[in-house]
Amino acid sequence: MAASWCIEKRGSVRNESFRYNDNIPETGCLSIIVLGASGDLAKKKTFPALFNLYRQGFLQSNEVHIFGYARTKISDDDLRGRIRGYLSQGKETDEVSEFLQLIKYVSGSYDSGEGFTLLDKAISEHEISKNSTEGSSRRLFYFALPPSVYPSVCRMIKSYCMNKSDLGGWTRIVVEKPFGKDLASSEQLSSQIGELFDEPQIYRIDHYLGKELVQNLLVLRFANRLFLPLWNRDNIDNIQIVFREDFGTEGRGGYFDEYGIIRDIIQNHLLQILCLVAMEKPVSQKPEHIRDEKVKVLQSMLPIKDEEVVLGQYEGYKDDPTVPNNSNTPTFATMVLRIHNERWEGVPFIMKAGKALNSRKAEIRVQFKDVPGDIFRCQKQGRNEFVIRLQPSEAMYMKLTVKQPGLEMSTVQSELDLSYRQRYQGVVIPEAYERLILDTIRGDQQHFVRRDELKAAWEIFTPLLHRIDNGEVKPIPYKPGSRGPAEADELLQNAGYVQTHGYIWISPTL
Fold first, then answer.
1. Which positions fall inside the Glucose-6-phosphate dehydrogenase C-terminal domain (predicted)?
2. What is the pLDDT of residue 17?
3. Would you put residue 321 in left (φ > 0), alpha (ψ -120 to 50) or beta?
């Protein structure tokens, strides 16, 4: 029988219960170990997410302790000082002070047993202080590290820091993307980690799966009768999944040039969204049932055609001294993916991502086919579209043709709109990392990437990536602040997308 935890939210008289893994009673204390604790990812994302979980009562001071581990030789207070400014908008509150006291720091290398022996000793001392029965405690290792050190760190954890799991305890690892650079390197990394940890212990995190509107996709598709008969090739002409940034690499040119926009954004973030948009209804909400359906989508993908790919590189990208002068790395890509199955045959899935563009947004745009027998002659105004705005200003809206108010029978495009800031006033939308870390503690792998899913994703993109790496496919220069190369708009048009002219979505004001 599952253990039910009663959690009292700070500042509230309301209690909230939640369940962890349905099969294992959670009784031991919880240790969260942030590896790479002195780095930017840990300071800007991991520790703030842990603080917000603590502030909301999901992490209790009487059961959790947080350990930072890195090569940098600093003290507990030094690490706390580095983190403090990223918590609660930099305000020093009692909650911030209480949270920082839960953090202990251990210094050591990533390939030597000495440091991990000290880390295990510190964790064990905490577990003993909480009167935790040996084998019942929980250890969560968060890899805020480059993938190059994953294998050595996994070996060290396996050799020195594992918790005995015979009494309900566990050891889990959370690994950040990128998971390799192509199919071969990804499979090698998966094999190295897989030799040491079982799949249920491995959580491959993609923070886009924790975003509120992405989490809403399955509910929208499978809990609303409205969409069930429309969500297919008979009614949908094309689907766009778009990621745009209005800034360049901003000091990360050397890192970005190693991967490029396809590896950095499309192969993981946007492809994960595509799977949720295109998948069939799973048997249940169980994580494995959902991930099974996502894998089926990936396995149904046709090879990407070169003529359905447009790459770009913004002018000035190579001015960064950390970027090679002959770099062929794309900072922009538009491509068409096609799914060979009964539901989606013939429907282009247009993936578009770029840096240094004219706007910042991430959205899903489902464009429906033209109305047959258009008696109002209004097709020139645009098609029906269902748009899900992931960021910024989370929203969902349906573009419809309606009668223009007045005595004349004229038509205009408007929208049915659900804007989160307006509809859910006072509701704080959690950060993606908060949700995903909590899922890891609960043992829910629904929003994490499974090994066969990762392999199928790399199989789709590796041939194209190798052609880019070999210089066989060249990016087209484009001006910063533009829409990207004009050839990308031509590709959209050739794929069947009809742009609406004269319509602008205006975010509602309170």
1. 218-497
2. 33
3. alpha
pLDDT single digits (tens) 87-137 = 877 667 888 889 999 999 999 999 989 999 999 999 988 888 877 777 788
Question: Does the active-site annotation cover 269?
Answer: yes
Beta-carbon contacts of residue 404 (< 8 Å; ≥ 6 apart)? 410, 411, 412
Tell me how far apart the alpha carbons of residues 15 and 17 are, in angstroms, rounded to a whole number: 7
Specify the pLDDT at position 85: 87
Handedness of CA 324, 326, 328, 330 (dihedral sign): positive
| Extended strands (E) in 196-235 | 202-205
Q: Extract the runs of DSSP E, i.e. beta strands, from 355-446.
A: 361-368, 385-391, 395-403, 411-419
Query: Which residues, 6 or more positions from 41, have their beta carbon under 8 angstroms from its beta carbon?
Result: 144, 176
Quickly count: other Cβ atoms within 10 Å of residue 443's Cβ: 20
Q: Which two tokens stand for residue 240?
A: 């766009």
Q: What are the residue ranges of helices labelled H in 349-398?
A: none
Would you state the pLDDT for residue 21? 40
Both tokens assigned to 24: 């294992």
Give the torsion through C-alpha atoms of 209, 460, 227, 239, to 10 deg: 100
- How confident is the model over 253-303, as pLDDT tens digits? 888 998 999 999 999 899 999 999 999 999 998 889 999 999 999 999 999
Return the structure tokens found at 354. Answer: 């770029």
**What is the rounded distance in angstroms from the CA atom of residue 446 to the CA atom of residue 220?**
17
Structure tokens at 265: 């954004």
- Inter-CA distances, 451 with 266, 303, 367, Å: 18, 21, 32
Catalytic residue among 269, 289, 340, 447: 269
d(CA 431, CA 424): 16
Q: 350: helix, coil or strand?
A: strand
- 162: which DSSP letter? P
The predicted pLDDT at position 15 comes to 32
pLDDT (tens digit per residue) in 420-443: 777 777 777 778 889 999 999 998
Do residues 58 and 440 make contact, with C-beta atoms less than 8 angstroms apart?
no
Mean pLDDT of the chain: 86
For residue 429 the two structure tokens come to 């939308």
In this predicted structure, the answer to whether residue 243 has a pLDDT above a threshold of 90 is yes
Nearest to 444 by CA among 295, 291, 298: 291
The answer to whether 505 touches 416, Cβ cutoff 8 Å, is: no
User: In whole angstroms, what is the distance from residue 352 CA to residue 359 CA?
Assistant: 13
How far apart are the C-alpha atoms of 410 and 285, rounded to whole Å? 46
Cβ distance 323 to 257 under 8 Å? yes
Q: Are 249 and 320 in contact (CB under 8 A)?
A: yes
